[in-house]
Design brief:
There is one protein chain. Strand 3, helix 3 (about 65-75) and strand 4 (about 85-90) form a beta-alpha-beta unit. This protein has helices at about 15-30, 40-45, 65-75, 100-110, 135-145, and strands at about 5-10, 30-35, 50-55, 85-90, 115, 120-125. Strands 1, 2, 3, 4, 5 and 6 form a 6-stranded parallel beta sheet that branches. With about 150 residues, the protein is an alpha/beta fold. The longest helix has 15 residues, at about 15-30.
Length: about 150
C-alpha cells in the first residue's frame, strides 16, 4: 500500500478540512494517508508520496504553519530526486499574479532540489468554488490513479 503524507498549509482551517476530506477519499482508493500541519524532511522520506495542500496568505505568502518545513527543504543541500510529490493550492484569483503563489513557491523549491512532481500542480480558485470539495472531486477523478 502506498503511504501518502499530506502536509497542510492553512490559515483559517478550511484547507485542513479539505485535506481531511481528500484523505478519506484516498483511503477508500486503498492508499494510507496521514494529514499533518507540520513535518520534517526525514518524515517525508518514509512516505511514497508527499501531497502538499496549501492556502495562500497575505501578498502571495506561504502560511506560517508550514514555513518551517518549507525552510527546511529550501536550506537542505540534499538531492530530493527520490521524493515524489503533488501540490494542491488554494487562492483567490482576484489577487492576480499572487493567485495560488504559495503552491508555486513550494513547487519551485522542490524542483530546485530535484523532487519528482508526479502530477501537474492543481490550483483551486476559492472565488469560483464556494465548496472546495467540488474541485477536489475533479482532482481525484483525474489524478488519483496516477499517484
Amino acid at each position: 500500500m502506498k503511504r501518502i503524507l499530506i502536509i497542510v498549509g492553512s490559515v483559517y482551517g478550511s484547507t485542513m478540512q479539505v485535506a481531511n476530506y481528500i484523505s478519506r477519499k484516498l483511503d477508500k482508493y486503498g492508499y494510507v494517508s496521514e494529514v499533518t500541519e507540520s513535518s520534517s524532511l526525514e518524515n517525508v522520506k518514509k512516505s511514497n508520496l508527499l501531497l502538499i495542500m496549501t492556502a495562500t496568505t497575505g501578498q502571495g505568502d506561504i502560511p506560517q504553519n508550514i514555513t518551517p518545513f518549507v525552510d527546511e527543504i529550501k536550506e537542505s543541500q540534499e538531492d530530493l530526486n527520490d521524493i515524489n510529490y503533488a501540490i494542491i493550492s488554494f487562492g483567490d484569483s482576484g489577487y492576480g499574479p499572487t493567485f495560488c503563489n504559495s503552491g508555486r513557491i513550494i513547487q519551485s523549491i522542490l524542483e530546485n532540489r530535484n523532487g519528482n512532481c508526479v502530477i501537474p500542480p492543481f490550483e483551486i480558485d476559492t472565488v469560483e468554488y464556494l465548496d472546495p470539495e467540488e474541485p477536489i472531486n475533479i482532482w481525484c477523478e483525474n489524478y488519483i490513479d496516477k499517484l
